[in-house]
Automatic annotation (TrEMBL):
GO terms for biological process: DNA repair. Its main location: nucleus. Residues 22-31 have a biased composition (Low complexity). It holds the Pfam family Tyr-DNA_phospho. It comes from Diplogelasinospora grovesii. Residues 76-91 have a biased composition (Basic and acidic residues). Belongs to the tyrosyl-DNA phosphodiesterase family. This is Tyrosyl-DNA phosphodiesterase. GO terms for cellular component: nucleus.
Length: 594
């Protein structure tokens, strides 16, 4: 390229994040009444409307809020997940019932708002302030890989920011780790912030889970599982997604343990057992990191949750034992055995932001991960049912160059193709690699008659991770969908099982939620939705195969149909250098391997 560009180095990105985190947006100042404690076990209906601080939002979003009977000043009504109802323009009635006789359910997954995209591409999206800005939050447990304490604290309501008990769980367990020292410096500015280091027994493991657990003064709790690091860059212009539980009330009476064999996959009871077992994995002979939040969550009723928790924790795990909670690919396989799937030809699409070293052959990919993903409930069809086709969605350098943040967003997206082993890996991955944005000039042609369904995120580089099984090749129905922190790696999902011991090894902490249509209503179908969380068109609700039956939306983060890589295209590699300037005139020198 003859055109010269500005050199962008990783330190520029880090400095930008640091400077951004020091700036705390101002909010509306208004008096707030102290929250009442021990009102009753089941919160009254009026407490579903709680105040919200509309910090830093454009004028057109700061709609005139309703008055709250509990808190003086301005407030907005919130839905069952605690999110302002303005994030859901089309409100449905109870149990997903629409104004017609057809039952419609909003997407269980939410996309996050993109700062530099227009409102029409941000419909039904959610912000971190939507999640944390409720002044009734009394305690927050924040689990993540990267943390910016100043940024995190700026998202709480300004009137209670210094009162919320904030627990930050990270994976920098070595005392001399620069990341740990930086966190300690940041946390020292806040008397209400406590740091907890998760011990990692595996040298290549990370604490990669992304989760918020919130306790409120109205005696409800909430679990939020998402895909973003707790840093400014991830919440600004990168595609992310979140699953939010309903607000969980206190149990009306002590709950008797449910026998393991009676725990139904997808139920709130099973979700609670799996979450508590995940949290127990942080304990060691030296510390009981999560015991306080475990003791608290034991008191709450999880029955409103619809979803299966899929998590990974470091260590060696027997995949054949009778423990109720499995981890890694074994957890996914266990859950999918309860999920009905269509008998015809289908696609399983793996969309991730990192591809690790998987080996010079595709043995692990096909025989371990793909085999787990291909599991379904109807094993009677095992011989007749066609095997699903697998597709891996990952951006190319061209897509990173054209993204909203240009090359800067590429620092969060990783794979390697330089070594001989990595080159062999690329050879077996190349036939199944597809673009994030399906408008790549060098990609395979879609055809003139193809109708593209726009998700509105093609210029927002992907940090989201989704695994979706489409019920048919036309991608009109969805058998199941998973949102998770887990990328395409052995460290996240676990090694192949040892045939002698029955054990498999996992290196990292990961967490995600699996959903499927049958969780929401009998005979329901799940349909992909674009630019909205709600199935709204006849094509969504009837052409998907619903025939007027219940329909569950699934908000899509990428366009359909997918576009295959062209013959000369390769995936983006953050450690490689790129001399062609991005749309902002910057070049990428490589070497960024954070």
């Amino acid at each position: 390229m003859g055109k010269k560009g500005k050199r962008l180095v990783s330190s520029d990105v880090d400095e930008e994040a640091r400077s951004s985190r020091r700036s705390t947006p101002t909010s509306l100042t208004r008096p707030i009444s102290p929250p009442l404690k021990k009102r009753r076990l089941t919160p009254p209906a009026e407490l579903q409307e709680v105040p919200d601080v509309l910090e830093g939002l454009p004028d057109e979003e700061a709609a005139e809020p309703e008055e709250s009977s509990r808190v003086k000043g301005k407030s907005v009504a919130r839905d069952e997940t605690g999110v302002p109802e303005e994030s859901h323009p089309q409100k449905l009635s109870e149990a997903g019932q629409s104004s017609s006789s057809q039952r419609i359910f909003k997407s269980p997954f939410r996309l996050t708002r993109i700062q530099d995209l227009p409102d029409e591409l941000n419909k039904d999206t959610i912000t971190l302030k939507d999640m944390l800005g409720d002044p009734l939050i009394s305690e927050c447990w924040e689990f993540n890989y990267l943390h910016d304490i100043d940024f995190l604290m700026s998202q709480f309501d300004e009137d209670v920011r210094s009162l919320v008990k904030v627990n930050v769980v990270h994976g920098f367990w070595k005392k001399e780790d620069p990341h740990r020292l930086d966190l300690q410096t940041q946390a020292s500015q806040y008397q209400n912030v406590s740091l907890h280091a998760a011990y990692l027994s595996e040298i290549f493991g990370t604490h990669h889970s992304k989760m918020l657990i919130l306790l409120r003064h109205d005696e409800t709790a909430q679990v939020i599982i998402h895909t973003a690091n707790m840093i400014v860059r991830d919440w600004r212009n990168m595609t992310q997604a979140a699953w939010l539980s309903p607000r969980l009330p206190l149990l009306k009476a002590p709950q008797q343990p449910v026998p393991d064999q009676d725990l139904k996959v997808g139920s709130g009871q099973k979700f609670k057992v799996d979450l508590l077992n995940y949290l127990r994995s942080y304990s060691s002979h030296r510390q009981q990191t999560c015991k306080p939040i475990i003791d608290q969550l034991m008191k709450y009723d999880f029955s409103a949750i619809r979803g299966s928790l899929i998590s990974s924790v470091p260590g060696r795990h027997n995949v054949n034992d009778d423990s109720p909670t499995k981890f890694g690919w074994a957890a996914l396989r266990q859950a999918l055995k309860a999920v009905p799937i269509h008998p015809g030809k289908s696609d399983i699409v793996i969309q991730i932001s990192s591809i690790a070293t998987l080996g010079p052959t595709d043995n692990w990919l096909k025989n371990t991960l793909f085999a787990a993903l291909a599991t379904g409930r109807d094993e009677t069809y095992k011989l007749q049912r066609p095997k699903p086709d697998f597709k891996v969605v990952f951006p190319t350098p061209d897509e990173i160059r054209r993204s909203l943040d240009g090359y800067a967003s590429g620092g969060s997206i990783h794979t390697k193709i330089q070594s001989a082993q990595q080159a062999k890996q690329l050879q077996y991955l190349k036939p199944i690699l597809y673009h994030w944005a399906n408008d790549a000039p060098d990609g395979a042609k879609l055809g003139d008659d193809v109708v593209v369904k726009e998700a509105g995120r093609k210029r927002a580089a992907p940090h989201v991770k989704t695994y979706i099984r489409y019920g048919n090749k036309s991608e009109r129905t969805i058998d199941w969908a998973l949102i998770t922190s887990a990328n395409l790696s052995k460290q996240a999902w676990g090694e192949a099982v040892n045939s002698k011991s029955g054990e498999m090894r996992i290196s990292s902490y990961e967490i995600g939620v699996l959903v499927w249509p049958g969780l929401f209503a009998e005979d329901a179908v799940m349909a992909a939705t674009f630019l909205t969380d709600t199935p709204t068109t006849s094509e969504d609700t009837e052409g998907s195969g619903g025939g007027g039956g219940p329909v569950v939306g699934l908000r899509m983060p990428y366009n359909l149909p997918l576009q295959h890589y062209g013959p000369r295209e390769e995936p983006w590699v953050a450690t490689a250098s790129y001399a062609e300037p991005d749309w902002m005139g910057q070049i990428w020198p490589g070497g960024n391997d954070e």
